[in-house]
Amino acid sequence: MNFATVNFGVFFALVLAVYFLLNHRWQNRFLLVASYVFYGWWDWRFLGLLLLSSVVDYGCALWVDRVHHPEFSERSRRLVLTASIVTNLTILGFFKYYGFFADSLVSLAGEAGLQLHLPTWQIILPIGISFYTFQTMSYTIDVYRGRMCATTNLPDLMLYVSLFTQLVAGPIERGAHLMPQILKPRHPTLDGFYSGAQLAFVGLFKKLVIADNMAVLVNSVYGGSNPSGAAVLLGTYAFALQIYCDFSGYTDIARGTARMLGFDICVNFRLPYLATNPSDFWQRWHISLSTWLRDYLYIPLGGSRHGRLKTLRNLAITMLLGGLWHGASWHFVAWGAFHGLLLIVYRLGETPREARALTFKTRQGIRFWLSVLIFFHLVCFGWLLFRSTDMVHAGSLLASLVSGAFWEPVCGPMLLMVAAAGLPLAGFQIYQYYRRSPEPWVIWPGWIRAGFYVTLFYGIVLFGAPGNNDFIYFQF
Fold first, then answer.
1. Which of 69, 147, 169, 231 could bond to 142 as cystine, CB 3.0-4.6 Å?
2. In whole angstroms, what is the distance from residue 319 CA to residue 325 CA?
3. What angle do CA 91, 95, 100 make, to 5 degrees?
4. In 3-state terms, what secondary structure has residue 85?
5. What does the alpha-carbon distance between residue 476 and residue 469 come to, in Å, rounded to a whole number?
6. CA pair distance 186, 461, nearest whole angstrom
7. Whole-model pTM above 0.90?
8. 3-class SS at 196?
9. For residues 469 and 206, is the Cβ–Cβ distance under 8 A?
10. Among positive and negative, which fits the CA dihedral 254, 255, 258, 259?
11. Dihedral of CA 318/163/328/208: which sign?
């Protein structure tokens, strides 16, 4: 069920109507049923995977919990934790990566003069599996590390895994943050309800008006044959707008609807295109994934504790796996490798003084905005790799940028479309930056706020893209 549909609007209205009539225990049970209905709307057959992941981590977390079972040895806990991780990654690997690794192995063997005949299956990727798998794994790992106690109530753990507001495309929640909100009574306020509705409405505008209109332009360029250099450039700018407004728009709707129910879902974006370097970018873009990779991969690998060379190695491994998390294709690996290279190059060129100086006061002036502009274009180069269908496609697009005809008549309307979407968004985000507020509309006078929402409403009605486009990150 897509957030940007009438079906979801009716579904959420029914959930709200029943939810506030129930006490805390029955609210949780009702949300669990609603979440399974929400997920089963796409394909009910994958509800079993959702249940299996919940049951596995429920049992494993109880076993590794030092509070509930102090008599278990550390070795036993490590074995159970390993079993949990292996089970989750096996499920994820089979559904998401089997075909990729099988095809790559066959191709590699062919290059060596060998013939392999591996079984081939048409495997359907369960929607949201990368998100809820990482969420369940973080719960068990945090219990093992003693950061929280395991819940003894299976339905509450199932709700933690399946809460529909952030089930299929994140943000990837942590047990220590979300579980207490499930276990304790929630006290929604009228202000919270209104601010949640406003945030969700802003996210809906970003999705329907900016992201979906940019998708038309992007698809025409990346799906066309022999685009000109200017078309590739404008298509890549359009994709930068599309993927940001699509994913952050989803996050706004997820956080807004959750807030209306009394939940506080973690922030996933902080004006990422105002980043000046790759470390800054990954503290602003898809924050729930980047912090997950930091806490459960980069730091366990050694982080920055064992010298510069190993630090750079750990950064490269983390970003390669981060790229692979996004999809089973070499162009996603290349995208991760590119961001890993950026992290390494910037880290090598950065002085300790420059690293310490990154504050709001220093993030102003010509030097700051020039750094933002330069790094934005590096990010856009990465988006070209990300949006390509494969490495050959990426190579042909890059060739179009540097050879052949650069401008064609169709580029004029394309430039107007990108400017019409990008310039107002950039201006508003600069306003958010200087106001130091991600939701500045909540403190505006009532008449300004009313005009803002009327503008968004008519923007959706008049300029919403035709058709029903799924959110980009549903495929991950």
1. 147
2. 10
3. 120
4. helix
5. 15
6. 35
7. yes
8. helix
9. no
10. negative
11. negative
Residue 350: in which H helix or E strand, if any?
none
In angstroms, the CA 114 to CA 71 distance is: 53
User: What is the secondary structure of 409-441 as a DSSP string?
Assistant: TTHHHHHHHHHHHHHHHHHHHHHHHHHT-S-GG
C-alpha 27/C-alpha 18 separation (Å) is: 9
Could you identify the residue written with the tokens 């009539």?
21
8-state DSSP, 123: P
143-170 tens-digit pLDDT: 999 999 999 999 999 999 999 999 988 8
Tokens of 286: 């898809």
Cα distances from 476 to residues 41, 112, 129, 324, in angstroms, run 18, 32, 8, 10
Give the whole-angstrom CA distance, residue 451 versus residue 266: 29
**Which of 198-202, 203-207, 348-352 is the least confident region?**
348-352
Write the single-letter amino acid at 6. Answer: V
Non-local (6+) Cβ contacts of 268 within 8 A are 170, 171, 247, 248, 251, 255, 286, 287, 288
Q: Which residues are catalytic?
A: 326
Run of H or E residues at 456:
helix 446-463
Interatomic CA distance for residues 316 and 101, integer angstroms:
20
| Structure tokens belonging to residue 99 | 């075909």
DSSP 50: H
Q: What is the pLDDT of residues 89-99, one digit of tens each?
A: 999 888 888 77
Which residue type does 303 have?
Answer: G
